[in-house]
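From the thread on structure requests for the teaching lab: each student submitted one protein with a one-line request. Submission from student K.M.:

"Model Peroxisomal membrane protein 4 from Penicillium argentinense, C-alpha cells only."
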Amino acid sequence: MDALLSRLDELVLKPELAPLLSLFKGARNGIIYGSKVRFPHALVMIFLFRSGTFRQKLKLVLNATRLHARNLSTFAVIYKLSMIVLRNLNPSGSGKEGRYDSFFAGLMGGYAVFGRQPGSVSQQIVIYVFARVMLSLAKLAVQPNMHPLSSLITPEARTKITDNAWPVFASMTWAFVMYIFRWYPDTLVSSLRSSMVYIYADSDHWDSFRTLFIHNK
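Reply posted by the TA:
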C-alpha cells in the first residue's frame, strides 16, 4: 500500500501533468465549497420559509446544493481550461499568461455556466459576486495611476473618498432597495422580495395577540 501511495505521489507531482490535474482539483474544490456553502443556507431558508412536506423540502435543499456545487465546479474547469488554452495561444511566448487572460477566461466561464442557466441559484451566486466586484472597482477607482483621471484625485480627496465610500454605498443600497420594494416589488428577486414582505409588510398586520407576537399570520 505504501509503495502504491508513493507511486501516486510521484505521478501527481510530474510537471507535465500539472495543468490537467489542476482541472481535476478545481472541479473537486468547486463541488466541496459549493456544497459547504449552499447546504446549510438552503436547509435553513427552505425549512423556515417554504411550504411542503419534509420530503419535498429535503429534495429542494439537495437540489439547490447540487446546482451550486455543479455551477462552481463547472466554472472552475472552464476557467482553468481557458487559461491553459490562452497561455498557449499567447503570441509573445507559449505558456506565458497574458494581462487579460483571466478576464476572457472568466467571460467564457460566466457565459457558459451562469449566463445560459439563469435559475435562482445562478442568480444568487452572480449577484453575490457582482456586489463584491463593485466594491473592488470602487476601491480601484481612487487608487493612484489606475486610470487617466487618477492624477486629478489628491491624496486628501482620496482619503475622504475612502473614509466615506462604505457609508455612502450602504446608505444608497438600502435607499434604493426600499424604494423599489415599495413601488416595484415584482422586479426584485423572489427570495429578497419574500424576506422583505415578511419583515416590512407582514409586520403591519395582525388581528390578535397571537398574530402580533407569536405567529406571523
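TA comment: Residues 2-141 form one domain. The two ends are 62 Å apart (CA to CA).
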